[in-house]
Amino acid sequence: MDSWLAIVQIVQRGRMGRFWWVNHKQTFTQEHKGGYLWSPKREVNNARSQFYDNMRRARRGDGVLSYADGRIRAIGEVTDEALEAAKPADFGNIGEYWAHTGWLLPVSWRDVVNEVKPSAHLSVIAPLLPKKYSPLRSKNGRGNQKAYLAEISEDLYLALGALASGTIGDGVPPADRFAVIDEYEQAQVQALQSDLTLSETVLRTLMDARLGQGEFRARLLASDKACAVTGVRDARLLRAGHIKPWRLCQNAGERLSELNGILLVPTLDHLFDRGLMTFGQDGLAKFSSSFNAADLVSLKLNHARSGYSLSHHEEFLEFHRSEVFVV
Amino acid sequence: MDSWLAIVQIVQRGRMGRFWWVNHKQTFTQEHKGGYLWSPKREVNNARSQFYDNMRRARRGDGVLSYADGRIRAIGEVTDEALEAAKPADFGNIGEYWAHTGWLLPVSWRDVVNEVKPSAHLSVIAPLLPKKYSPLRSKNGRGNQKAYLAEISEDLYLALGALASGTIGDGVPPADRFAVIDEYEQAQVQALQSDLTLSETVLRTLMDARLGQGEFRARLLASDKACAVTGVRDARLLRAGHIKPWRLCQNAGERLSELNGILLVPTLDHLFDRGLMTFGQDGLAKFSSSFNAADLVSLKLNHARSGYSLSHHEEFLEFHRSEVFVV
Fold this sequence. Notes:
Two copies of one chain form a homodimer. Chain A is α+β, with helices and mostly antiparallel strands. In chain A, 31% of the residues lie in helices and 20% in strands. In chain A, the strands form three sheets. In chain A, strands 1, 2, 3, 4, 5, 6, 7 and 8 form an eight-stranded mixed β-sheet that branches. The two termini of chain A are 36 Å apart. The A-B interface holds A 227, 230-234, 236-237, 265-271, 274, 276, 291-292, 294-295, 298-300 and B 227, 230-234, 236-237, 265-271, 274, 276, 291-292, 294-295, 298-300.
């Protein structure tokens, strides 16, 4: 048994994390079992939603209250940044009107000891609910229809955690980032492989590009010649990564264009690929706020900037900034 | 047609590469078709051999004369450093007395225009043969029985290249480093998977360790905590690599021991894994001489040293220095 004390201790460790409340609605079972949260990126009418945007604001170590069927049923810890992912196959017919692509946030869930009903404790809870983007209606204690992932205060998080008497059991292993990306890519690969309009050569060229190899890499080496940040020219140290990820490209042109490629040494390629680094329009490297400043100094990356103009990559960099970069 | 002129131009480019002569003997067909050279690491009696040690002295861009059946039959360019690899399955029964593990050197071969017999030009060639470790006996122009890869002078290389009238055709694609390593690892994986004495749990632990994941990584993070060079502590930036490569480990103990693991940021993990960097007993990072000094400065790696004592890894580091590091 894992007591409520452990959760309080996490909070008291002094980390500057956030607290969240998710209204699962129909997908509690799938999200709980799979160790994640999933949301579309926007509303069906393409409007932005604070509740969906919050998926990308969550960080490792943040706490999440899981609310479904009028009860707090689990408490989770975010284990990784959100990543772009296909709507889980497990959802079946649920949310058919949602886009096929959204944000997936890995979370390690543990069941609560007592499934507490917030509506039964409204006098305690109502004053602690956020004024804007609240997960519950303060009048009747029912879930706010539009809410998905809502930010809540530490006080509300602790109050509900105490009412639930903490969590029990080992919890569900969180969704693995690489497994999710891999599955997404495999789906793209299979779609291409079963596309009878593609010749063997085109297919091979596309597959090579996926791994940053072949013609894609050769053209990028010919045009950019060196790591975009360090200026390293030794090809053994240069990775040819996609700016707009291969799995998210709309067509072969985007997958093969050297304008959608960037040469980086492995550490920077790793950061860029995971959205932990991007470039401003001024060529200055920007790092995710989730980094400890000391680590950037250790990597000698504070004040890093591109060693050559990246303006020819700007169209794809704009996508990277808005859709891949983890602010 | 690719003329002799191109080869002379490579030489005249002023690079400080070396020139080699290989006596293929029985394995010409396999090595020519596969785009490589393969040798055991030592003589059958376990004595060192200069001809085998030369496999690890060859560098990208070096030239190689291919000699078999008394003739120079091809000229190649080394495309990558030698790597440890299983004896090619293509060899079949050839060299049954050789060890199962040796050096594989990727080479891009092109056929010569005229297959020149060195023995027919002994008056030109004999004075140019090396005094020690010669590929040919200067008396009769026959292959030296013990020779495999011999270093020759630029003069001898150019003289024989001219007699052969240069090369013709597009050449054979060289063996791919990653494909070779992958094949080697797959063989290990299959051997483990078919080992009925292993439980499911042990097998999974071993497979996780191969990818620097799971228990292996967790224990290494717990003991070493930071990148051995940069001191970076963010686990998202730390790779858990094997010092003695997973595929070369003798048993599960070596594969799972945190003493055989090293935490490095991706660029350094990449260099260390490929043998392009190692550590001296004094903790100073050593880089392969194949690097351009300017690139090491760009990476801010000149004078890099371990940020903490590596003495607990010394047994495995000794293996890395002698068997993995590309001097």
